[in-house]
Design goal:
Blueprint: H1 3-62, H2 64-87
Helix pairs in contact: 1-2
């Protein structure tokens, strides 16, 4: 090979090495970002679940049927508690 071919091979090899190192760094950074996104998604899901529970509680307490349901549940729980205390 002549000198021009050696220079071209050296330049292409160096460029390939640089791009390979950049690709490895990019993959590592993308893995870190993916982990952070996963944490954010889990936290957002927890917040959405809590908001859904709060909305359900408010819906149950604001309607007449919900109030009756809550009263019946408390009444039956207190009745069950009395029965369990009487058995003791």
């Amino acid at each position: 090979m002549n000198v021009a071919e050696w220079i071209l091979v050296a330049f292409l090899s160096t460029a390939l090495l640089v791009f390979l190192i950049l690709a490895i760094v990019l993959v590592v950074k993308l893995i870190d970002v993916t982990r952070e996104v996963k944490k954010i998604v889990v936290k957002g899901q927890d917040i959405a679940d809590k908001a859904d529970d709060i909305a359900g509680n408010m819906r149950d307490m604001s309607s007449v049927g919900g109030l009756v349901k809550t009263f019946v549940n408390k009444y039956t729980k207190s009745k069950d508690n009395k029965k369990s205390q009487d058995k003791s």
